[in-house]
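dude i think i finally got it to work??
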Amino acid sequence: MITYNLAVVLIATLGLVASTSSDVVRLEVRVQTRAGHELAGTLTVPRSARSGPVAVFVSGAGPHTRSYSTTASINNRAFEKIEDALLLRGVGSFRYDEVGTGASGGSYRAYATSLTLSNDLVDALTVLGSRSGFAATEFLLIGHSEGGLVASLASTSSAKVAGLVLLAAPAVPGTIVMRDQWREFAMRNGASYDEMQVEHRDRARSDPWYRFFLTFDPAPAYLRVDRPVLILQGEQDFHVPPWHADSIASLLRHGGNRNVRINMMPDLTHGFISIDPHSFERSVIASISTWASNLLRTRAK
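look at this
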């Protein structure tokens, strides 16, 4: 794994701050979105490179910073660990604070839906592909949970998207996702289904993101995705059960996409962990880095 030192260098010509080691450079990048707020993120690239492929990470449901964890309230550094593996294969990365989080402006509560978050992602791709110093030649979009849907929505808006990695992405409207989760919670924890319905109605009245999530059908988005797709799914995931992966693959293929691969991961949960919540499964990291390397090598020929 690459170790970064704490040296910080001000790059006056770009107005960016970079932390460097002998192997990589980290740049703070700002993205002005079409909605008017600014996104802040970290672009990490091989130190000697001036251009090349970049993996862009997309967080799951809820407001998250660039230090995203696939497990609630515990930083398992999932995206950073994938980032390290990709850097060893010459692929840069971009992790960013979502609207209204970290150093990014705007209000998540007032603005965020799967669709508006995909617009932000497209705006970030535009900036990353055209900036001086280091320009992205192509992108891999890596999204967890709702982030997989956001990445799929954004993928056809940029010709530079080489492929997508969908980690436990939902295949159906949120009403079905939540119905299955409530049933599972009730069975596992002895919770009252009626009490959960009261909470659901209160949230639907007060949370714009939730209202959109409940009614939005992701199927048309998957039907339009024509880039290579790697789908990873934990078989012990009860937030987004394994059948979602099969449904997404069917939608992709029905839309004409013939470059779809599914990896079902035995014993793994929605966060792609088995026992230790601080961990992130190494086989997931290996699957992503190997697939990405093979994809980019094929495209380079």
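The domain at 30-41+48-171+218-300 is CATH 3.40.50.1820 (Rossmann fold).
im so relieved honestly
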